[in-house]
Amino acid sequence: MLSNQAGDEKRTSLHGHWSSRMAFILAVTGSAVGLGNIWKFPYIAGQNGGGAFVLVYLVCVIVIGMPVMMSEILIGRRGRRNPVATMELLGKEEGSSGNWRWLGGLGVMAGILILSYYSVIAGWTLAYVVKSATGVFVGATAEEVGAEFGGFVGSWKAITLCHTLFMALATFVVARGVERGIEQAVRFMVPALLILMLVLLGYSMSSGYFGQGVAFMFTPDFDKLTWGSVLAALGQAFFTLSIGMGAIMAYGAYLPEETSITGASAAVVTADTSIAILAGLAIFPLVFANGLDPADGPGLVFQTLPLAFGQMAGGMFFSTIFFVLLSFAAWTSAIGLMEPAVAWLVEHYNRSRTQATIIVGGVIWLIGMGSVLSFNVLADTKFLAGTLFDNIDYLTSNIMLPLGGLLITVFAGWVMCRNSTSDELGSSGTLYKAWRMLARFVAPIGILFVLINAVT
Ligand code: PFF
User: Fold this and answer.
1) Distance set, CA 165 to CA 199, 339, 378 (Å)
2) Best of 166, 240, 338 to mutate for ligand 1, by most ligand atoms within 8 A of CB?
3) Domain limits at 62?
4) Is the CB of 32 under 6 A from ligand 1?
5) pTM > 0.85: yes or no
6) CA-CA 20 to 30 A from 406: which of 90, 136, 222, 414?
7) Does some domain include residue 5?
8) Domains of the chain: total
9) Is 4 part of a structural domain of the chain?
10) What is the number of the ligand 1 atom nearest to the C-alpha of 240?
11) Is 153 a domain residue?
């Protein structure tokens, strides 16, 4: 099975395969739809001035995100191992070098670092389930909701507890083997989340500030656009689609041969982008209606949404369901963030899945304590991009993921021969040519250009 695939039997994955095309799409959608869409997108868009940022983000999703996602899936399916071993195997097989494994290693590291702070925010959503269910936000004013949030994140003990709980949940599911759990969760979660976002949108539309919210999101003011915000848009495209770090590669390894990679990618990208836009449309009118600042940062969603729910009939119920769903969305994403590291430990060091998951979970929890403290004890300790949390976020989203994506497209577009990629993508027609053009030229050059301009 280690020999060249041409004329050989197709490889199979050690960890089994997805039961259907739908199962794969649901799992990747589960990984993609998460805090990135509902928590991060609105606040990053807010911090970067709205319209022009959103436009650049959409362009990045289509011309860079889509080809990177297709490249990752096809590489994963061809190698059928963890990202480190897959890159090493294909590097050799395509006549390049086994050193491509370092690209897999970069992904494993990125996953660990992202989850370290992702888990902290996901912990907040858990706490907000309880706060909502006990009626904390019913009839609350903007000041009260703000004070509640400030008091909560200001207590390192409270958010350590939540971070710990979330990491325990993530570790538990990954240790048990993930497929069934993810399938069931996502099948129910994504449609339910969509429905609740529509309910919120309805409320937002009646706030009287809907036009202002839409204008903020869709009127591009290019004067506000710096190279820094272009990089933030690129980083957000990577983050929200879960690409550039091998998570999708790890999922692709379990993908049956006959599934269309292009179709699956298009479905995931559409679902993910729609939810982010919907979240923005629901949130910005509420920001303006309540005199809040769109550039407020990571607390934005935790203040606007409880406020809106607090004013709505049945708000206590909706708010509870909403934060339950958001916790689920974060949970299914956390699984994708852990999978490359866990699969690598299992295969490389012959660890049992349970052992590997506990080790990875423990390391992530520990690093995450840095982000926990960034919101209270170390809130004033700032360097480079800000607090430790800000720096880990910047390093992963804006540097590691784009760099990973750049190298993935270079590998798929330049190192892999045409036969290998057309074999996986299953055609040589217009779609294939478009992918190849994007993967060889547009994506790598685009990423490099933005990185260089933003960093220098
Ligand atoms: N895409 C997830 C989100 O938008 O919340 C975050 C994420 C999950 C990034 C998995 C990377 C990943 F591998």
Assistant:
1) 29, 19, 22
2) 240
3) 16-455
4) yes
5) yes
6) 222
7) no
8) 1
9) no
10) 4
11) yes
